[in-house]
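Lecture notes, unit on protein representations.

Consider one protein chain, 150 amino acids long.
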Amino acid sequence: MFPRASHGFTLVELVMVLVITGIMTAVVAPKLMDNSDIQARGFADQVKVSLRYAQKTAIAQHRFVCVAFTASGITLTINAAATCPGTALASADGKLTSVVAAPYGITFSPIPIDFSFGALGRPSFNVQQSISVVGVASAILIEAETGYVH
């Protein structure tokens, strides 16, 4: 005769699936609820892209682009002069190009020093600058000679 075909799951199999699902939920759910690491990485990526944009804009428009930092944000302003004002928003001849604000609880550590990219894309400092965002392992680096942001 033919063996009897199985048409479902046993009670033991169903209980094991429920137990495994419960364990996975208990382990994975807290990690999904805390997205501060994801937000910190996203902010660091936005800062990196904004700095690249500032350098490319300085080269394309053959002007100075001022980069001003706060504890939790970055502001880019195009200026005709080599010196940047105390705050980029207060510039009389400056054109505001970009403001990136960090999500709640995400900050720079320490607050970076304000600088500008010159008309050739080179930054106004003489040594490589490192920008760190709290919660992100790798720092954003700006090369002094070329202005390359990585």
